[in-house]
Amino acid sequence: VGADKWVMGTNYPTDVTAWSPLDKQTYRRNAPGGISNVDPYIDSGSSNPGWTRVSGGDSLPQFLLSTQGIV
Questions:
Q1: Cα gap 65→29, rounded to integer Å
Q2: 0.70 exceeded by the pTM?
Q3: How far apart are the C-alpha atoms of 64 and 69, rounded to whole Å?
Q4: What span, in angstroms and rounded, lies between the C-alpha atoms of 55 and 28?
Q5: Residues 23-65: pLDDT tens digits?
Q6: Distance between CA atoms of 44 and 70, rounded to whole angstroms?
Q7: Residues 4-29: tens digit of each pLDDT
Q8: Own/partner pairs for 8-11, CB < 8 Å, 24+ apart?
Q9: Residue in 46, 17, 14 with CA at minimum distance from that of residue 30
Q10: In sequence order, what are the beta bridge partners of 43?
């Protein structure tokens, strides 16, 4: 809970969570943090990811809220 929608160009500190507008999954920012210009869904598959997908309760609610046009 508490994860915000990921926004390109935002400075995300280490360990903050955000959900991807591409796959509606929640991700945690890896060290050292910083400006994020690549969606966590895409970035988490890179050889040196800045984001790691986390399992848990945010994914389905974010999906439902976004499909309803709420977020």
A1: 22
A2: yes
A3: 9
A4: 10
A5: 999 999 998 989 999 999 999 888 889 999 996 544 455 555 6
A6: 26
A7: 999 999 999 999 999 999 999 999 99
A8: 8/36, 8/37, 8/38, 8/39, 9/35, 9/36, 9/37, 10/35, 10/36, 11/35, 11/36
A9: 14
A10: none
